[in-house]
Amino acid sequence: MSTSYEAAGVDIAAGERAVELMKARVARSRRPEVVDDASGFAGLFDASAFLRYRRPLLATSTDGVGTKVDLARRLGIYDTIGHDLVGMVLDDLAVCGAEPLFMTDYIACGKVVPERIADIVGGIAEGCALAGAALVGGETAEHPGLLGEDEFDVAGAGTGVVEADALLGPDRVRTGDVVVAMASSGIHSNGYSLVRHILAHSDLTLDARPDELDRTLGEELLTPTRIYARDMLALVAETGGVRAFSHITGGGLANNLARSLPGTVDAVLRRDSWTVPPLFEILRAHGDVPQAEMDKTFNLGVGMVAIVAPDTADAALRLLADRGVPSWILGETTAGTGTCAYA
To answer: How is this protein annotated for GO cellular component (predicted)?
Structure first.
């Protein structure tokens, strides 16, 4: 009996159709340094762009979207999680002061549905354009029998560059610095395993419309991650006072901010400096989640933090406001042991 790759569950034609559908959207993320590879086996980037640097350091990061992809699958909305992926990968690069240059993606699925794949990759390309990076390549892998026909996962890797003497980090932080918070757009891409647990063990449903929200819970949960990279680089270039950044991802606000502190400095944060968005309170109440667990799982409305010199804090707030990023003074640094706590 003869058989075929298609009989085994792999549809090559569907994959080719997906590539055709995504081409125009991917092209929008192109940078001038991108060089076409006629074979399509590799993404090419003209490294002569680094000649303007005295000592260029390449930065790299890789990440995924986590179990948020399950909610996207359940709701049939696929064009937002690409922004989540870009935020997780390229904003990590910008934390050290690196300019994101390019990114590649990887999608594993049980069955290639061209329109779904094109929506996912299109969202990644749009996110790259927002971050100022190029999407130079990727891979879509069909895994029949390993994943269900509607199941998929997405991951990516990015590369950036920073001048060696402009590298940001804990060694620049001083006592008396100001901690500036940048608002998140929602939960971003961390904590969704707990979200799914709450949904499975409470009366909350994705189509519910809590009074505190102006749309369904599912739509609120799929709000794409805010992409900060260009705003972060603008802060560095235009204020001259950025010491360090902290991307508030898995582990919550205090744990992530502590990673950006030297061993001689603490950060003291004020809970009364911001109002936690209602979505988090909905989840806390319906899931009976202790505050300590909320603190270490979710961003609670703070997606990115900048530690800045005190004489540049006002300029930082003005610049972020001009760029449409809600921000506020979250706290300050004091002498300590490298920990972060609430006042």
So the answer is: cytosol
pTM to 2 decimals?
Answer: 0.92
The average pLDDT across 131-150 equals 93
Three-state secondary structure string covering 213-276: CCCCHHHHHCCCCCCCHHHHHHHHHHHCCEEEEEECCCCHHHHHHHCCCCCCEEEEECHHHCCC
Q: Which of 137, 277, 307 is nearest to 212 (CA)?
A: 277
> Do residues 342 and 255 touch, judged by C-beta distance below 8 A?
no
Helices 68-75 & 81-95 angle (0-180, nearest 10):
160
Non-local CB neighbours of 18 within 8 Å, separated by 6+ positions: 112, 113, 114, 115, 117, 118, 121, 140
Residue 106's domain comprises 9-35+54-163
pLDDT in tens, 62-99: 999 999 999 999 999 999 999 999 999 999 999 999 99
| Rounded-to-integer distance, Cα 10 and Cα 222, Å | 29
CATH code, 214: 3.90.650.10
